[in-house]
């Protein structure tokens, strides 16, 4: 490649036309005006060098439509033989992402319940019952706090996502240098009731190092969740601003579970994890690329032996 010059003009030849027509010269020409070589970095280039840590937050739906947790028909029912839908989703995502976080301290939030001591409805309460800090130690700590909350709060409503999204964006907005990337898992059973506020929050979050995974449990109509996924129609806020990049992934849990419970829950969990985490590597890389953030290869690697949820490579592209 020489840049813009006569030696950088290339003919487009159709071999079939050339064979049939004696006067055929070409089907057009390509003139290269400029070119550059840039490196494309993968998700694991950022993670394995220790340049970026993933920070995982879970938000659980405690609205009344889940049913009385004491009833076997409830989506929150505690069954000793297999985890309920919420616990399965927490394990599916958390057990993988925790390997990308050094301290394994995870915020765990709830929304849609009346909380003690005053019985006021909250859409951003801490599952561990500590009003000062939402952090739980590891996935097991999240599950312990989740089960404890079921006995402490009153399931109510409505289903509002925007408070928990804004909770995470407050942290993501303070770390934009690529050293941290935030993943929010929202697990819900119902139709969202603050759609416009949620769209506003997602548009704002799309400029930050953040992704949102929404897992739908139960048999509700999740059409609104498909809209938030943004794969068909790009999300806009009240001001008509579009999301700067794709950050939302919606997955209905029922796609991975047998209605008669014949599928082992471990298999459902593995399939769910694969599906919901599929877009995270590309979303991380898209954020880094947008803001020209490259891996710090001189750093001591904190994550040398991680399981892959993306393909490791650093390749050159013309």
Protein traits:
14 strands; alpha/beta; 7-stranded mixed sheet; 9 helices; 28% helix; 318 residues
Number of β-strand runs: 14
In percent, how helical is the residue content? 25-40%
Note the run of SSEs as H and E.
EHEEHEHEEEEEHEHEHEHEHHE
Strand content: 15-25%
Low-confidence stretches: 310-318
Structural class: alpha/beta
Shape: elongated
What is the number of helices?
A: 9
Give a short account of the largest sheet: 7 strands, mixed
Protein architecture, described:
This protein is of the alpha/beta class. It has helices spanning 15-20, 43-48, 85-97, 138-150, 162-172, 195-205, 223-229, 265-276, 280-290, and strands at residues 9-11, 29-31, 38-41, 53-61, 105-111, 113-115, 120-122, 125-126, 135-137, 154-155, 180-188, 210-216, 248-252, 314-317. Helix 3 (85-97) runs antiparallel to helix 4 and helix 3 (85-97) packs across helix 8.
